[in-house]
Amino acid sequence: MIILVYTLLGFLFVILQTTVFMVHPVWPAAPDLYFILVAYLAYRVDLLRGLVVLFPVSWAMDAFSGLMIGTYPLICFLAFVLLKIMDARVPVRESLYQVPLIGACYLVVSRLVYFFFSLFSPDALASWSWPLMLLRATLLVLLAWPLFRFLEFINKRLQGKLVPLAVLRVRTGNRYRSREDRP
Fold first, then answer.
1. Tell me, what CATH number does 23's domain have?
2. How far apart are CA 153 and CA 163, in angstroms?
3. Contacts of 30 (CB under 8 A, 6+ apart)
4. Residue 40 counted as domain residue
5. Fewest CB within a 10 Å sphere: which of 27, 36, 82, 100?
6. Which residues contact 74 (CB under 8 A, 6 or more apart)?
7. C-alpha dihedral over 83, 86, 92, 93, to 10 degrees?
8. Residue pLDDT, tens place only, 101-132
9. Quick check: is 151 in a domain?
């Protein structure tokens, strides 16, 4: 069930990113929502489930983007593995480093993909711009806070750890009295 829900959320993020948030194809303030999902899966889900969710989402993003085939799966899997490795190695409390690490990982992965494409397809690339990439990384970090909270809410809801409203209602009588003692 978790795989299905996160895959559907990933498709929703891809659709939002490629339609609503993409005013112009080279608009500098276009948020990469799929990358936040990749980071969340790297932090919270085991390796197999994360890869199963990322496979269709990254290919959908690849189909919608119109870039060279395989670009977004490369970005997603590279970022997922990099964040998974870094998450296992950092001994600091997770809330202090997770979101800023998303921005740093985004810059590293973007630079690696740019370098890779500059070797094999230099005509298909736009020029690298540090201010533009820093703007996108900052936007990604700012959007990661609310989206992480939303994804955490979905995760807890799927695992059944949220308190349903029936438990919160006020009960009458003595709750410590056993059922046998009640009339």
1. 1.10.1760
2. 12
3. 17, 21, 22, 23, 136
4. yes
5. 27
6. 113, 116
7. 20
8. 899 999 999 899 888 888 877 776 667 788 98
9. yes
- What CA–CA distance (Å, rounded) separates 85 from 87? 5
114 CB-near residues (< 8 Å, 6+ apart): 125, 128
Q: Which helix (H) or strand (E) holds 24?
A: none
Q: What is the pLDDT of residue 50?
A: 92
φ, ψ of residue 3 to 5 degrees: the values are -65, -45
Are the CB atoms for 80 and 45 separated by under 8 Å? no
Residue 180 in domain = no
Mean pLDDT of the chain: 82
Q: What percent of the chain has pLDDT over 90?
A: 35
Q: In the numeric block, which tokens belong to residue 98?
A: 């997770």
Q: Could you identify the residue written with the tokens 């970005």?
A: 75
Q: Which of 161, 154, 156 is nearest to 37 (CA)?
A: 154
Residue found by looking up tokens 């936007």 in the block = 139
Q: Using an 8 Å Cβ cutoff, are 120 and 146 in contact?
A: no
Where in the sequence is the domain holding 65, given as residue range(s)? 2-168
Residue 101 lies in a domain: yes
- Provide the whole-model pTM: 0.80
- Assign 23 a pLDDT band (cuts: 50, 70, 90): low
Q: Which residues contact 147 (CB under 8 A, 6 or more apart)?
A: 33, 36, 37, 40
Number of domains in the chain: 1
